[in-house]
Design goal:
Layout lengths: L1 E3 L3 H4 L1 H9 L4 E3 L9 H13 L9 H16 L13 H7 L2
Parallel strand pairs: 1-2
């Protein structure tokens, strides 16, 4: 899934066609609702503040691995989230029926 705001670059038919061609579902925030994208904005703020502003990436592969580790090891399994009752996403998912 690809979620974005309704910016011209994301809503263009060429861009939407490319996503569709690759089987990627398109999701856009509601028109005029800046809070609709708050979760994604919060995640990217955390990613920047907790990882990328403190790293020098020597290659694209180095950046890819660092971001993968941040998401899969730290963000989902170690970092507690206020919006999840001070649990990790992994804990919440494991407790789901």
């Amino acid at each position: 899934m690809h979620h974005s705001d309704r910016g011209a670059q994301y809503s263009s038919s060429e861009y939407r066609g490319l996503l569709t061609k690759h089987g990627i579902a398109i999701s856009m925030s509601a028109k005029g609702d800046p809070y609709d994208n708050a979760v994604a904005e919060s995640f990217f703020s955390n990613l920047k503040n907790e990882l990328t502003h403190h790293q020098v990436f020597h290659s694209r592969e180095h950046a890819r691995m660092a971001i993968f580790n941040y998401i899969e090891v730290f963000y989902n399994r170690q970092r507690i989230h206020q919006g999840l009752g001070y649990k990790t996403p992994a804990e919440v998912e494991a407790a789901a029926p």
